[in-house]
Amino acid sequence: MGNFIFSKEEDFSKWYLDIVQKAKLADYGPVKGCMVIMPYGYAIWERIKRILNDNFEKTGHENAYFPLLIPYEFLEKEREHIKGFSPELAVVTTAGGEELSEPLILRPTSETVIWNMYSKWIKSYRDLPVKINQWTNIIRWEKRTRPFLRTTEFLWQEGHTAHETEKEAKEETLFILNLYKRFIEDYLAIPVFCGQKTEMEKFAGAVSTYTLEALMQDKKALQVGTSHYLGLNFAEAFDVKFQNKKGEMDYVFATSWGVSTRLIGALIMVHSDNKGLILPPKIAPIEIIIVPIFKVDNEANKRILEYSTTVFDILKREGFRVEIDKDVKNSPGFRFAAAELKGIPMRIEIGSNDIIMDCVTVARRDKDKNSKYQVSMKELLSKMRCELENMQSELFNRALEFRNLNTKEIIGFKENDYDTFKTYINNHLGFVLSSWCGSEVCEEGIKNDTKATIRCIPEEFQNRSLNNLTCIYCNGVVKYLVLFARSY
Amino acid sequence: MGNFIFSKEEDFSKWYLDIVQKAKLADYGPVKGCMVIMPYGYAIWERIKRILNDNFEKTGHENAYFPLLIPYEFLEKEREHIKGFSPELAVVTTAGGEELSEPLILRPTSETVIWNMYSKWIKSYRDLPVKINQWTNIIRWEKRTRPFLRTTEFLWQEGHTAHETEKEAKEETLFILNLYKRFIEDYLAIPVFCGQKTEMEKFAGAVSTYTLEALMQDKKALQVGTSHYLGLNFAEAFDVKFQNKKGEMDYVFATSWGVSTRLIGALIMVHSDNKGLILPPKIAPIEIIIVPIFKVDNEANKRILEYSTTVFDILKREGFRVEIDKDVKNSPGFRFAAAELKGIPMRIEIGSNDIIMDCVTVARRDKDKNSKYQVSMKELLSKMRCELENMQSELFNRALEFRNLNTKEIIGFKENDYDTFKTYINNHLGFVLSSWCGSEVCEEGIKNDTKATIRCIPEEFQNRSLNNLTCIYCNGVVKYLVLFARSY
What we know:
homodimer, alpha+beta, 11-stranded mixed beta sheet, 5-stranded mixed beta sheet
């Protein structure tokens, strides 16, 4: 037991699970694949919720709540949707002591129940757009599970919007994609590639799916959010028509989009180290922990605690998320390690010497232990602000550098390029930007050879010329530059 | 269609359902008994959540999330618990395309899954107290449902605490009861009687249940929250022991407590009228709506809208929850009615005459339409503050007066008192304070004769002398003064 954690170089997966449990983010529930989100993990989720929710609200989205239980036949109304989700459904067959005449499924996503309601609510162009979001639990029966990354039950938000025109719905899809990108990069300090999914990888029921893809420290990719343009698929399935300005009846265009508790898994796998979690300050439930260094002398301890409380009050009043560690039983070293395990960005140590000097000693979670230094009380506030800001941007830059270092271009020009591609991806992992003809045969072939899939058709490389390039797999005419990676 | 609603005098139940749907609080989902909480209803729930959550947090409670799915056998571990809940369970028998080897139930409440986790987390007195709360959905298969009051799925918070001593756990039970009372009275403006439930009415698995009981305008009672002292029942069922300060192993004492979306039903049934919802200002998502009175003249309309926007900005900056109704198509009368239907506490009308006078016209939702008056811009802020505060306390006082008027004392002294009791309760409804011997035979007898149950043993009457009183039903020795009522 204790706080010893596996090293990530030795076993990345065990390191991950160790952080989840020992930093008390989550624990295994009694049902396979269902996790318990513990208070510290839930506090991170609450910060994610609050920040995203404020953004949704500011841009005219409203929250609501739709039922967990969905008639099975609803899923069958959209052909691709049922095909994609049927292997993962949990089904209620008995309730109130009786067998149900029609089975009910637990929502694996809510398009069907929501579009069923939209068919009642949307009658005229005056009712549009409808921009509704909900924060809920979701059930998908997964074979292999891992806390936060893939669990039978998870928490998420799902936005479901309805629009008059294709143009407006497509704009909403990309608007949300961009809102997610800004949130994930600015708050979680995780750089992402954005782009469209291929037909094979898109959401079951979407016309097109846009994704955000991040690189973990083990060089595997993680999809951290998606935004779908659903076209008329759900409007047709649920017969949602509105009277347009000319008095004619038209189907309604749709989008849906979501991010989930998986983001907490990404935070762990992008930033953390062998001492535990490292949280970007903007998302940390506690930004600063004050650790009074207690002595054997009770009089001295009283002074130290008083001084620490003064520091706490000053920081609290300025709006910092700060706590005092009042543990008198354990050694300072033990208590430093505990704060490091939880990934608290800044530690303030206060001992007798700091009091004499009218100072505090500060240590940043992402720096090595020799870098701690004294700050005068006069400079306390400005220094804290500055360090937290620096840490936020340095974590992002470090992750970006790692991502870029592990994003390799291997683009098809000649016959033997595919060998280079295969060898590289099998030995180095990471993202590989490559050239693809658009055929599913090639996509499948590469997946079989390398276990890598097309993560997305990344926006940021689409203005390049495709002249003289060939599909990395078949040497055929290139349609897109795409990002390959093995992924979670 | 339209906004016409049933009168409550004519049919209270239809009036209630009309307000739910026409004020767009909730709608019926596709599965019987499952409601959709619409954005306006959800906004009320979000205010309830935020205020209660801040209170829980301030008093050292932490949020977490426990799984929806619970092994059936868990419920069987506490004998009374399974007896109480088994008729209401929804059961998942198939998942991921396969029949499950052990059925899983959807949480009807989470004591079992939480105490299963506490058995892993609690080892020593140093781990105590544990004070965890969660905001979740709950499934109970109800035969007769009604939006917000009794639905197959509802949203709630459930607190689950673990303590070293009986004393501490009992104190927590009453502390939360009192926290609920303050919230419900101060924010929802609903007066409540607090007290213990009888053995017959208590929570399945509790040692004792404390309840908050409110009186609706149809003179039926509604239980609006409960707080349970669970003793060692769940600790014993899940073998949750801790090492106490002397080094011995002891069982852990428990409490649980919750309020749900039912509170929204109470808000409707206590305050609202035949024009629609009336919301107490402190809980209203929108406190003030500004209604510009547009004319046919475009130039004038521009000035009116500008002036309205100025008023909006002034109020917004001061932290009021304010909106402008920019509808130019419908008549002022129609727009007033729409704002009234939604129960917005204050309406500010702005027409050309108001601009000339440097005024606005204000109308309070709970006053009759002739009571609207002009307020100079100079007095705008102070007047708004004052009116909102007055409305909050007047709504409470009105509800209290109604409750007191309909709380009758019929206490047993002599043989024929029971006839008086029966006649009264059957004709007048409301609360009846009466004297009871403590026997379930009498409790059942009264229920059969009057459909009234013992809502609680109210705290506020327990210091009265019971000398010379007899049980209203059997004329036996009195044990308690209790409140009877028909209820939802």
